[in-house]
Amino acid sequence: MNIKRKLHSLVSPKNPNRKVACSNVIIISSGGIGDTILFSLVFSRFEVLVQGNETITILLQKESAKVGFLFGKDVRIISVDFNKLVKTPSYRKDLCQQLFKSNFRLVISSDFLRHPKKDEVLIQACQAPQVLAMSPRTWPKYDSALLKNRALYNSLFESGPIIQDKVLRWTRFADWLTKQSAPPPQITFPPETLPPSAKRTRPTVAFIPFSAVKEKQSPASLFFAIADQIPNDYDIIVSCASGEIFKNPSFRPLLNRANVFLEEANFEQLIPILRGARLVVSVDTAAMHLAVAAGTQTLCLASAAYVGEIIPYAAEITPDNVTFIYTRIECQGCLGNCVLSTERGMFPCVSRILQSEVLDKVQKLLGRNL
User: What does pTM read for this prediction?
Assistant: First the structure.
């Protein structure tokens, strides 16, 4: 008997083997780091579902748990390696037993895109009396399993079209869950949650040039051109994950400049650094959301893949401190499933970003902060 069938047969919402009453809330949020940063801005809307002395837990995938601090010290974070969940039976069994024994009263899936062999195995393992979610996005490979798994939920929210701003979708979901309507949040961290800005002896511009999807990166030549027009009395920080600069050798000569410094801080350490910068120039990546939410003037060099869903943000949630440059293209909103051939190793919508437009915008944004 496989683990999924065994769980279904041994545990159920009314399983007589439960020794204690169900209590507490868990939100299963299996998006990437960028999604998790954005979800943290809506999270307070979900906290009102906690009753009395209950606690709230968020289950995140392992990489996304790196920004778990954004949910506050009172929120328990469960970090899950989704690859091990699928490939390692002992890991899956231990995790599912942990979730079952936690006796959650309420399970919420915050994901529109759900995987029946990952997210929904964990949802089933909780076997909570109340399980709520959005109706999942269609996924041809798994649609039959997703349809069958609708039986796991007490109720499902119809959140609207596939292409829709994520923060707006979560806001509408929260409205449905709480039966309370509230405007969506700006992409801005509450001021009281922010650390002090890092202090440097010279004004600073931060580059965030790398993406987990290399085809979304603008070329090194563009960042060299930007560096050429930054005033000589400025420092430039190149921010990236540990070792990432060595995976992008075309950028390494930038570090030979006297005013350019490499910064490999983790996300929590990065926020005060970004707050201390006069300008952040970033590709579409998780740290870009941190820069915007931290209130720093940010220029995002984006692909058109997530137009309408993530980048650019919906008008009603976009703060004044962010500017997006991307190439409008017929196939925009492809959600990363590019059907076109790459150009110079980039998605066409990235390759066609005009250097002149970027340099002009950098000059204007820096002029605003001189």
Answer: 0.93
